Amino acid sequence: MFEGTNWTPFVMAMSAVNWTAVIAALITGSTAACGPMLLWHKQSVKEKYGIQAAFLAEISVLVEMLHYRRYLAGLRDCQSQLQAFGLSQGMFGDGPKPITFTIPVDEGYNRVYRGNINKIGMLPADQAAQIVRFYQYADAFKVDVSVTGCLGIGTKRHEDFKEVADLLQQLLDLGSALVAPRSKRRWVFGTSAKK
After folding, report:
1. Closest CA to 128 of 52, 180, 65, 32
2. Where are the domains of the chain?
3. Cα-Cα end-to-end distance for the chain
4. Percentage of the residues of the chain whose pLDDT score is greater than 70
5. Is 152 helix (H, G, I), strand (E, B) or coil?
6. Do 131 and 48 form a contact (C-beta atoms < 8 A)?
7. Coil, strand, or helix at residue 99?
8. Fewer CB in a 10 Å sphere around the end CB: N or C, the chain?
9. CA atoms within a 13 Å half-sphere pointing along the CA-CB vector of 159
10. pLDDT tens, position by position, 87-138
11. Long-range CB contact pairs, 117-121, < 8 A, 24+
């Protein structure tokens, strides 16, 4: 089948090629092509850590403020008052007056989250899920303590205060777990179990 093919011209042409120049050109070309890719990768890693730091900083401040203002203690106190009043309800006739519990929350309390939600996929999946979960709890808490929320309009039910206090407790636990040092991090309902 290949009896008529004469490979001599091809072999002679290949021996005349300056292979050093070819290899140098290939190395130069691959370096020129890989350089921008490496820079892009480095930039995306920096952006990932920047986004992560911003989310965790915002969560840290929110958790700090919730602890500092002692909202959980206030909710538990209202719950205890209503529960105690409910136990002695027969002695007081109509029952307690509705208790209101409102917290004015600015719409910009989660600026970093709203501004970077489209980049949350850059974070590890378990951390991204916990961050989204934190902000969902924060939004639910915000609704409950708003002027039109279940505690903002007033309630006589100690169960309402217990429910919101339990939600706030979960919010604080999750936020604390997110911002804990990596060596002590433990997701509340996640997959990370480092201690």
Report:
1. 52
2. 14-179
3. 71
4. 84
5. coil
6. no
7. strand
8. N
9. 1
10. 545 444 566 678 889 888 888 899 999 998 998 888 899 999 999 999 999 9
11. 119/47, 119/51, 120/51, 120/55
